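Summarise this fold before class:
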Amino acid sequence: MPQPSTRPASLDELRRLIDELDAQIVELLNRRARVAVQVGELKRANGAQVYSPSRESEVLRRATELNQGPLTDNAIGAIYREIMSACIALERPQKVAYLGPHGTFTHLAAQAKFGSSMEYIPNRDILGVFRAVASGAADLGVVPVENSIDGGITDTLDAFMTYPLGICSELLMEVHHCLMARGRDVGIERIYSKPQVFAQCGRWLSEHYPDAELVSVSSTTRACEVAREEDNAGAIAHSAAAAAYGLTIVHKNIEDLAHNVTRFVVLGRETCDPSGHDKTSLVFSVAHRAGALVEVLEPFRAHGISLTRIESRPSKRSPWEYYFFVDIEGHQADAPVRETLEQVHKACKYFQILGSYPIAETTVSIE
């Protein structure tokens, strides 16, 4: 009686199997896309926003929960990011403003957040991003708000006091800096980059290039543009910028701390529904008297609401007046959070909720 063959599948057989699976994947993707178009039609009929951060968070969480490998959760997340990007574009293409120019860390963060099917609009400064979203020139905006090494991004915090926009989502991105120049053997005498980048690489620079002149420019891509044209010049930027500007990477990963993470937020004009795992950002000021700040913070303690961040900024309106930017756990629609914020509001001189949105559950790393 003949025995079933136990020989391993040939390369051709495995490739035919992959082709069959690819055909099924394409069919399923298009079936999903057709349903997404129907969702978009219902959203338009009901006046709902196209981008839903809470739904995005739910889809990504469910996809990773279903994942049994061998693909990593990060790989599954990246694949679904592109699927959702393509489907959102079918509903209605979204314009995303970001701190440019092309190739900046904020541009990379925006692409990691929204995928390749969006229309990306670079802006010269952070205020420009706020202005684009507030005016309707862009649907959404992406700006850096804080870094794990040098703290809050002051231009972003100050812009919230000028434009009445809300935060609808966030992204954590691990930032890696590289020193690049026109050639590996170039004697680097001047190094160009942003002030924040110099702060994040300060110890490394003092050890390896103690005599180099550090020249601040508006963006890491601008640093590459200048270094490309000058002798004895280098730039600090993301590794992807080297190929884009014809530069050679001289040193990789020169940031002082291995886990150099920047938090980016997504700006929008509408509120975000609860996802079940949210945070709320707010800004307030208090009267200039003893105990005023303690009085404002007391309701958080009383209701067991955890503060994950608090940072002060000068108001720029009155001397020695400060605004406090605070992040708390929970959504403003949650009863305990809502009651707490009502009490806090009463104790404040100025009070504004910047938004409730899903907590970023993973940190994106772009090499």
